[in-house]
Design a protein that fits this description.
With 271 residues, this protein is α/β, with parallel strands linked by helices. The chain contains 6 helices and 10 strands, in the order H-H-E-E-E-E-H-E-H-H-E-E-E-H-E-E.
Length: 271
């Protein structure tokens, strides 16, 4: 089953895991920075009973850029020397005939509300990541974005910009041959909104200092990384921090295996 065909209740988590198992999809999120870790589908309170009970879809811990290469993607680091970014992820479907499904074009107000919750929690850099999963054959027949998706994207930009939220889009096609995962096809975002063809960012996020709950959360995620990095052998590539709702544990996983718990082995996409 491809991501396009996956059940809607599991599609977002499955898409997030697949993105971080594939370097060409995760790399644009780092904006040229070297990342220390990404954390996926992390509860804000991690079961502590706090007032923030939703999940943070993606958190990134990035290394600052050297002064010699700093540009518009350079953000001031936190007091611990790292840069922290967060994304709320929304998934839409593009059919091979160029039509779209699940665009959520009428739900921008709800999305802004979720992003504001990230900021109230103390996140220093908040962005929306619109993922477009293309049906097999879409990229051979269509350019991106098709008209319905373009209209939905452009409609969100004024509200996101006025609140200082970042906006990135990520289109890809996932294909399988029976039970064999053929992989992904990607293409660059064109310059129809003035975005370089190698950059998936439409709006940069306004950077602030991590505070309150978020500062405590990243301290816990960093502790997990520092505690478990030695058991991740070299050659495994980059790593991500994942949370399992079955055993209520954080674990560090190689990004090529981001969809299962490092403790109990449960499939995180189905939780």
């Amino acid at each position: 089953m491809t991501l396009f065909e996956s059940p809607s209740q599991f599609r977002e988590k499955a898409a997030i895991c697949r993105i971080f198992e594939t370097l060409p999809l995760q790399a644009p999120l780092a904006e040229g920075h070297i990342f220390r870790w990404f954390a996926l589908n992390t509860p804000m309170d991690l079961g502590t009973g706090g007032s923030f009970t939703s999940d943070m879809d993606v958190i990134a811990c990035l290394l600052p850029l050297p002064k010699s290469v700093r540009g518009r993607s350079s953000y001031p680091p936190h007091s611990d020397g790292y840069i922290y970014k967060t994304w709320e992820v929304k998934v839409s479907l593009l059919c091979r005939d160029g039509t779209a499904r699940s665009l959520k074009s009428g739900k921008t107000a709800n999305t802004i509300k979720q992003l504001r919750a990230y900021r109230r929690f103390g996140s220093s850099n908040v962005s929306l990541l619109d993922v477009y999963i293309c049906e097999t054959g879409f990229m051979d027949r269509n350019s991106f974005p098709p008209y319905p998706a373009q209209q939905a994207i452009l409609a969100k930009i004024p509200d996101l910009k006025s609140d200082g939220f970042g906006y990135q889009i990520l289109p890809f096609e996932h294909d399988k041959d029976g039970d064999v995962d053929i992989g992904l096809k990607t293409f660059h975002v064109p310059t129809w909104y003035g975005s370089p063809s190698t950059n998936f960012m439409l709006l940069p996020a306004i950077q602030t200092a991590p505070v309150d709950g978020f500062a405590s959360l990243i301290k816990r995620l960093n502790s997990c990384y520092e505690r478990e990095e030695k058991r991740i052998t070299t050659g495994k590539g980059f790593v991500c921090v994942v949370f399992c709702r079955s055993c209520r544990q954080l674990s560090l996983k190689p990004m090529k295996d981001a969809s299962s718990c490092g403790h109990c082995g449960k499939d995180l996409r189905l939780q």
